[in-house]
Write the structure tokens for this entry.
Amino acid sequence: MKGPPFLIASGLIAAALASPAGAQTYQPPYAAYPGGAPAAIADQHRYENDRLRNQAETNAAFARQLQTETQLRRLEIEAARQPTLTPAPQARPLYSLEQERSLREGAAARLEQTQSGMKQIDDWLDRPR
């Protein structure tokens, strides 16, 4: 039983090799390319170099864009940190000597009143325990 299927398979293989499709001659790669294999390989290298160059230019443009955006964002942050400038207080108008004396006495009275309130707090903090 083993004989006939093996013979049939070997016969089919022999017939396939004998047909014109099975009898094609070997052609080296790039045989149809003008200039042959060296020219085809050179063109492949040239295409790959162009692809890599374009990719590098794209990456460089993207890096420049990111750098510009980073600088703008940094400037925005630094601008937000700067305190707003308050206008300088206006100069106090000049008063007569009596008015100046009453203003000084009033300021001294307010200072004394504030210090007396603080003295009570200081006395309480310095109390014996």
Observations:
- The radius of gyration is 49 Å.
- Residues 94 and 105 are 17 Å apart (CA to CA).
- The mean pLDDT is 81.
- Residues 30-81 form one domain.
